[in-house]
Amino acid sequence: MTALIILLCVLLIAIVLVQIGKVTELTAQIKGEREVLRDNSKWNGWLSLGFMVVFLVSVCISAWEYKNEMMGYGPHKAASAHGGALDDMFHITLVLTGIVFVICHIALFWFAYKYRWQEGRKAQFIAHDNRLELIWTAVPAVVMTILVVRGLNAWNTVMADINPNEDYIEIEATGQQFNWIIRYPGPDGKLGTRNFKLTTANNQLGMDFTDPKTWDDVIPGQELYLPVGKKVRVRITAKDVLHNFYLPHFRVKMDAVPGMPTYFIFTPVKTTAEYRNELRKYEDFNKPSDPADPTGPKRWEKFEYELACAELCGKGHYSMKRILKVVSQEEFDAWYKTQESFYLTQIRDKEDDPNKGKVLDMEVRQRAQEFSDNMKKAVESANPADKTLTLNHINFESGSATLTANSRYELDNLVTGLNAYSGITIEVAGHTDNSGDPSANLALSGARAAAVVKYLTDRGISAGRLRPKGYGDTRPLVANDTEENRAKNRRTEFTILGTSNPL
């Protein structure tokens, strides 16, 4: 129905235009061609002036109405250190081009009025005017030079690379259809290397896990965090098609080109909470975020910084939006501590792990710290349940009491703990699953507990502080119904039996 109405409107307009043409032709025949031409010229001149006024007034009203969006005023102020410089550059450009725009359109419509057709008027031909040539060559050249120089200065400011001695954080943003993969460095502060040839279903970035810098790299969830007041260097790349890394509130916009890494540097100067608080001053942001729920949260309460793709990259382009939270350094550190290494959680000991079977230096450090924290808690706790700790990384050769070479890292941590708390006595307990003969399991668990005790005594721990005990399959942690559960039941534990002078 709508299409039919539109079609009828078009036909009616065409008929009206045809009729106007016929009326004009008939009027010209009645009044005379020159008289009609004179009337048309007069009306066209006045209509040009009228259109000029309406047009320029409309432009001014629109500019005032949308000044916040156009100029970065009000609720659209920049939230980065360099954002003000970019906004100033656009302000100057817009003002200068606006002046030229107004002058040109006034001249355009004024000349249309002034030099309308009049009987007896002849056009004046001017072959050349040096002064006029100089004006319209020099003035634009000076203006363009000002714009280019200022723009170049702004570009050099925001694109100046990081000084190695600066305090900054570097992240990596990789665009793909249809998501941003963001990678943070681990505690070492350095992003590991990548090689596209290493890309797999589990390793979408092609991270090189033979590089120790890669082991602690973090790939967080959908919500991203950055600390306020700290310089951020973003490596930008793409896996498939052209994308665009766009943070509008921070005036950050850079193409993500496959095979051609780029970067952008910026410093957030307003936390998400601070920006929300500023938005409270504006009427539009005090409206409900959901019009269907007038009592719900306001727009300013729901505001979030956004990461988007500003390049149409396919049908799923809309789904590339990510939430970015700018928080205090303390809040960022707290969030960062909850993030786990991508390598250790997703790749470690899997088929595509190039370090399978090896104990990494970072694992040794992590295990030592975890063991120290757990043992301190066990010594100081009054809860009997806290007194028993599982030695998760002690392993034996299959069906024997021979310790594997990698078990020494865990046992050395136990040696360190026993030396630190010289007054404690512990029971070393061996456990098995329910596979095989129960009496054989009992004997094997006892032999394994004794092997652990021997390792400790060989390194100076008094045998009087150690009580080896085998429990076989009598104390399972979980049901022995799957291989995974049976592996949990095959374990070595120690229990603090007594504490005297724990320090």
Annotation field: number of helices: 12
Q: Could you give the order of the helices and strands?
A: HHHHHEEEEEEEHEEHHHEHEHEHE
Distance between the termini: 89 Å
Helix and strand composition category: alpha+beta
Number of strands: 13
Instruction: Count structural domains.
Output: 3
Helix content: 40-55%
The 3D shape can be described as elongated
Share of β-strand residues: 15-25%
Radius of gyration: 38 Å
Going by CATH, the homologous superfamily of the largest domain would be Cupredoxins -  blue copper proteins
CATH class annotation of the largest domain: Mainly Beta
Order the strands across the largest sheet as they lie in space.
3-9-8-5-6
CATH architecture of the largest domain: Sandwich
Low-confidence stretches: none
CATH topology call of the largest domain: Immunoglobulin-like
What is the arithmetic mean of pLDDT?
83
Could you give a short account of the major beta sheet? 5 strands, mixed
What's the layout of helices and strands?
Layout (H helix, E strand, L loop, with lengths): L1 H30 L1 H33 L1 H5 L11 H32 L15 H30 L8 E9 L2 E5 L39 E5 L3 E8 L4 E5 L4 E5 L5 E5 L5 H8 L25 E5 L12 E6 L1 H10 L3 H6 L13 H20 L7 E3 L16 H14 L3 E8 L6 H21 L7 E7 L10 H7 L1 E9 L4
Parallel strand pairs: 1-4, 3-9, 11-12
Antiparallel strand pairs: 1-2, 4-7, 5-6, 5-8, 8-9, 10-13, 11-13
Description:
By secondary structure, this protein is α+β, with helices and mostly antiparallel strands. It has three domains: 26-118 and 130-159, no CATH class; 168-347, Immunoglobulin-like (Sandwich); 361-499, 60s Ribosomal Protein L30, Chain: A, CATH 3.30.1330.60. Helix content is 43%, strand content 16%. The chain has twelve helices and 13 strands. It has helices spanning 2-31, 33-65, 67-71, 83-114, 130-159, 272-279, 329-338, 342-347, 361-380, 407-420, 438-458, 483-489; strands spanning 168-176, 179-183, 223-227, 231-238, 243-247, 252-256, 262-266, 305-309, 322-327, 388-390, 424-431, 466-472, 491-499. The protein has a five-stranded mixed β-sheet, covered by helices on one side. A four-stranded mixed β-sheet has the order 2-1-4-7, with no helix packed on it. A hairpin with a 2-residue loop joins strand 1 and strand 2. Helix 9 packs parallel to helix 10 (407-420). The chain is elongated. It starts with a helix and ends with a strand. The model has no long low-confidence stretch (mean pLDDT 83).
